[in-house]
Amino acid sequence: MKPILITGTGVVSAIGLGKAETLEALLNGRSGVGPLQYLKTEHKEFPVGEVKLTDAEMRSRLGIADDAITTRTALMGMLALEEALKEAGLTPEMLPNVGFISGTTVGGMDMSEQFYLDYINSEAHKEYIAAHDCGNCTEMTADHFGKFAFVTTLSTACSSAANAIILGANMIRCGEADIVVVGGSECITKFHLNGFNSLMILDTAPCRPFDATRNGLNLGEGAAYLVLESEESAKRRGVKAQALLSGYGNACDAFHQTASSPDGEGAYRAMKEAMELAGIQPSNIDYINAHGTGTPNNDASESQAMMRLFGEDVPPVSSTKPFTGHTTSASGSIEAVFCILALQQGFLPANLNWSHAMEDGIVPVSQSTKKELKHVLCNAFGFGGNDSSLLLSKVPEPVEGPTKYDGASTGSATCFVMSAKQISLQQPLNEDWMQEPVVYDAPFVRSIDPSFKEYISPIEARRMGKILKRAVATSKEALNASGLNTVDAIITGTGYGCIENTEFFLDALSNDGEQLLKPTYFMQSTHNTISSLVAIQTKNHGYNVTYAHKGISFDSALQDAWLQLRLGKIDSALVGGHDEMTETFYHILKKGGVMGQDDEMCGESAVSIVLSKAVEPVETPLQNKSALRQAQEPRPLCKLSGFQMLHQPTMNTLMDALARLLQSAGKSLADVDYILTGISGHHDQDEAYLQETKTLFGQKPLLKFKHLFGESFTSSGIGMYVAAQCLKTGHVPSTLFVDSKEVSDKQPKCILLYNRSDGKNVSLTLLEA
Amino acid sequence: MDDLIYTLKQQIIEALNLEDMTPEDIDENASLFGEGLGLDSIDALELIVLMEKNYGIKLKDPSQGKEIFKSVAVMADFIQKNRTK
Question: What is the ipTM of this complex?
Answer without folding.
Answer: 0.94
